[in-house]
Amino acid sequence: MRYLHTERTTLETLMPGLDAALAEHPLTELERAPSPAIAHFRAAGGPALLVPVRDGGSGATPLQAVRAQRAVGARCPSLAVATTMHHFSVAGLVRAAQDGTGMETPLLETIATGRLLLASGFAEGNTGQNILRPHITARPVDGRMVLNGRKAPCSLSRSMDLLTASVAVTDGKGAPRLAIALIPAGTPGLEIRPFWRTPVLAGAESDEVVLTDVALDPDMVVVTEVTADAVPDAVNIAGFLWFELLLTAGYLGIVSALVERVLDHRDGPGEDPAPYLVDTDAAMLAVEAVARAMDTEEWTDTLLVHALAARYAAQDAIARTAHACLTALGGMAFIGSPDCGYLASAASALTHHPPARRRMARPLRDYLDGRPLRIG
Fold this sequence. Notes:
Strand content: 5-15%
Shape: globular
Oligomer: single chain
Order of helices and strands: HHHHHHHEEEEEEEEHHHHH
């Protein structure tokens, strides 16, 4: 079948053998914790996807990356969600390397050659919490940066080699500034606690990470220009662009797995595939349009607004398509296998990731009125 052929071909080019390896497992096995999918991702070189070729990585373009992520989502929803967090953390390091401390380049090389996994401890998961105002704090003490706080949920928490976390740097001399901390998994004071209670997307390993007096070299804390006004700087705009596009592509892949099941089971030359294909393919084309623009345009808040528009359009497309697919598959498919109901539930979770549409209503209105984009 030609459906998802482009995406799976792209995935095979960038992560040879991953699609075939995932296809050998039943969905229920891939989606539990611990999931065999994470080991397959490492073995296929997935951690290096966005690491530049000069640093030993795959150097995927934005267009290649979103296509690959859709293919991953169609095989293993949990892996798509978890690896989005890894990829956008790597992308942030790539951007920070342009004017950073110099430690980013050897770290990127280590991620690529060692196939290291990065967990993302950014400020999401709390209703009403601004995602540029983290719960983790950092303060200078005797030449070290001491971190305290927690992040839940935190994907890849059990398999990570390195935690990347947004932290509020306080020194008692002004407003806290947003920084990105890089914390090796074995650092004293870092603890993983159970958190995820639902079986949906359990394979993403989204548990709680607790930091208690974690002491880091100051070079492992990259301070940004973001303060309490929540206006993202260049590093954060880059991170949000990658996050929104990869996340949306992954969730479109999840609902595409439902579409694929409909196409596999609906017979007859007169059957119209449009109710199952049009919405999701149109949403994916919007994602791809922004991905292409990332190769040709400056990464500004205007491009980020376009990425958010693609993401929110995808949420609506996923809801319509999942309903249409479940109706088409009928009650016997629901009774005979947990896969269809599971995929529909997993695909709907895109709405729970930041920034929520309702929290962005006023910032988007302000942006249209000529003010800088704030992230709600």
